[in-house]
Amino acid sequence: MNFTKILAPVAIIVFTAGAWRQFGWAGVALAAGGVVMWILLHFTRMITILKKAANRPIGHVASAVMLNAKLKKGVSLMHVIAMTRSLGSLHSPKDEQPEVFTWTDTGQSSVTCTFIGGKLTEWSLHRPENTEPMTP
Q1: Which domains are seen in the chain, by residue range?
Q2: What pTM was estimated for this model as a whole?
Q3: What angle do CA 79, 53, 69 make, to 5 degrees?
Q4: Structure-model confidence comparison of residues 27 and 133, the more confident one
Q5: 116 φ, ψ to 5°?
Q6: Rounded distance, CA 110 to CA 124, Å?
């Protein structure tokens, strides 16, 4: 069970109730202002990330190998978009779980990420085969 979806509303209710007991309606107004500020901060961060990603090609990353090294299980899709500064190329049916996105670099190496519920569950690095002979 995802406790973060339950914890934030419970914390807001407890914060507002404590403000009511301590300061009355002025406390409720202060608590509401704090909650609105918190929501606006998250919204601004999301818009900034998507604005940066809009200026890059879909599914492109500077280095797929570095992205592979930085990924951690459980990070959100928004966090991965912030790391790559690019929207991933969707390889699963739209609005169905799991969501599969791919990011490719200029050397044709790619990272394929699987998200369930917006959280990274698994990823794999694909590198092209080197067909050129090595020269000493």
Answers
A1: 4-52 (no CATH), 57-126 (3.30.1450.10)
A2: 0.78
A3: 45
A4: 27
A5: -120, 120
A6: 8
